[in-house]
């Protein structure tokens, strides 16, 4: 099922945040290579973004999120959510 990490904002100085962005993008490419159909995007210059990926369970989703370099190095505030499609 799809999960997403909502990245709230950067909580470190901008140079430290920028230092881990390339590793974050490489991590997303690694997830794609593993079949997670991952995507990432930012809507704010510093923080504010999303990592969307597929996981079989909440535990797997938490493990995937925990290895994201921006999260692993405590660069951002974030929330983990299951993506649920609501049909009216």
Walk me through the structure.
The protein has 88 residues and is an alpha+beta fold. It is 38% helix and 30% strand. It contains three helices and four strands; from the N terminus they run E-H-E-E-H-H-E. A four-stranded antiparallel sheet has the order 2-3-1-4, covered by helices on one side. The protein is globular and about 40 Å long. It starts with a strand and ends in a 6-residue tail after the last strand. The model has no long low-confidence stretch (mean pLDDT 87).
Strand content: 25-35%
* Shape summary: globular
Record field, number of beta strands: 4
Question: H/E element string?
Answer: EHEEHHE
Q: SS-based structural class?
A: alpha+beta
Main sheet, how many strands, which sense, barrel? 4 strands, antiparallel
Unreliable runs, pLDDT <50, ≥5 residues?
none
Figure out the total of helices: 3
The spatial strand order of the largest sheet comes to 2-3-1-4
Mean pLDDT: 87
What fraction, in percent, of the residue positions are helical? 25-40%
How far apart the termini lie comes to 20 Å
What gyration radius follows from the Cα positions, in whole Å? Answer: 13 Å
């Amino acid at each position: 099922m799809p999960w997403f990490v909502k990245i709230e904002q950067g909580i470190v100085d901008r140079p430290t945040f920028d230092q881990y962005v390339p590793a974050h993008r490489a991590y997303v490419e690694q997830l794609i290579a593993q079949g997670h159909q991952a995507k990432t995007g930012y809507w704010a210059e510093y923080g504010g973004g999303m990592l969307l990926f597929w996981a079989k369970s909440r535990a797997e989703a938490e493990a995937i999120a925990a290895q994201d370099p921006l999260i692993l190095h405590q660069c951002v505030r974030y929330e983990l959510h299951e993506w649920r499609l609501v049909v009216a």
